[in-house]
Design a protein that fits this description.
Radius of gyration: 18 Å
Structural class: mainly alpha
Largest sheet: none
Mean pLDDT: 84
Distance between the termini: 36 Å
Number of domains: 2
Oligomer: single chain
Pfam families: TPR_11, TPR_8
Keywords: Repeat, Signal, TPR repeat
InterPro entries: TPR-like_helical_dom_sf, TPR_rpt, Ycf3/AcsC/BcsC/TPR_MFPF
């Protein structure tokens, strides 16, 4: 994981939203060109944290833009812009910001999760699921992206569509089909955290080949 993401890893807090709004990974870090350039990473982070805590999204956006102006290769500068733009409902611009973040730091699963949210909120569920899938393939322990993946899968296909996809998985791996049914249907309806925890525990333990086979069946067109 790039060093410049390490600060984010240490300080980010997980926040899980309601089924109709995918869980957003928060930034959660708790004029003059020369003056901007003199700021330390810690200063940029502290002010971003303060702006997010106040819900000052225009201010956070302006701060991220200033940050990118002096350090365009810092993925956090793009992350905070995406965070602000998403909260402001400017989803196309949020997608662009998070995509830039991911170009700089491909292993940034938090940006991939939020990119999925922006795609989903733009009415592009398949691209959202691809972003969440990329996050869990990079880090199978990233529970939040598993949650968002299951919720979006259910909300985009409906119970009938999910059931149809699960029938295909059932023929290959009945136990895994039951786990995915729990995450994509039962959890989405009941919001029982125990259901999600157990499903994600099993999914996290899959091998790369098992995950690839599962996703190939579940996300097949048609």
């Amino acid at each position: 994981m790039p060093d410049r993401i390490a600060v984010l890893l240490l300080l980010l807090g997980l926040a899980f939203a309601a089924p109709v709004a995918a869980a957003t990974q928060t930034f959660g870090l708790a004029g003059d060109q020369a003056a901007l350039a003199a700021r330390s990473q810690a200063e940029w982070v502290r002010q971003a944290q303060a702006l997010e805590k106040r819900g000052d999204w225009p201010g956070l956006l302006a701060w991220g833009q200033d940050w990118a102006q002096v350090d365009a290769r810092n993925p956090l500068a793009w992350f905070v812009q995406g965070r602000a733009l998403g909260e402001m409902g400017r989803h196309a611009e949020a997608i662009a910001a998070y995509r830039q973040n991911v170009r700089i730091a491909p292993g940034d699963v938090w940006a991939r999760n939020n990119l999925g949210n922006a795609y989903r909120d733009s009415g592009r569920p398949r691209e959202a699921m691809q972003a969440y899938r990329a996050a869990v393939e990079i880090d199978p322990d990233y529970t939040q992206a598993w949650h968002n993946l299951g919720l979006t899968f259910y909300l985009s296909k409906g119970q009938a569509g999910v059931t149809q996809a699960l029938q295909k998985l059932q023929a290959t791996d009945p136990a895994l089909a039951d786990v995915w049914r729990a995450l994509a249907i039962e959890y989405s309806i009941t919001r029982d955290a125990r259901v999600a925890r157990e499903a994600v525990r099993v999914l996290r333990g899959l091998s790369d080949a098992e995950r690839a086979r599962m996703f190939g069946i579940l996300f097949a067109e048609g």
